[in-house]
Each structure stands twice: as C-alpha cells, then as structure tokens.
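User: Hey, quick favor. My workstation is busy. Could you predict this chain's structure for me?
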Amino acid sequence: DDLKDLAENTTDCQLVNECYFIENVITTYEFLVALVVLRDILTKINVISKMWKSEWLRPPLIIIHFYKSY
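Assistant: No problem, here it is.
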C-alpha cells in the first residue's frame, strides 16, 4: 500500500516505474517461496548457533543433527 501511495503522490516518472516494478516483484509466487525458504534456513542457522554455544553438545553431533533435520 505504501508503494501505491508513493507512486500516486509523486511526479518523478522513474520513481513511479520503480514502485510498480517492486510491487509486482514482491507479490510473485517465486518471491514468496524464496522468503519461506530463507526463513527456514535462518531458523536452522539459529538453532545450530545456539547448539554451538551449549556445552553439552559437541560439534560433530551438531552436524549430525543438522543433516537429520532435512
């Protein structure tokens, strides 16, 4: 909605085109799938990072846990 407002309230043609382009890109299926995949990857990295900080789990076990989660 903010992109539409910006496009409607500006006189800069290049900015208007960029607003519409960005709006089209972020509403595509591929972009949404990429966001879901990125969220999944970042979640796994966060879990592994917390495991690295814990004292009870050794690094080889972290790697095994990571591959088992797939």
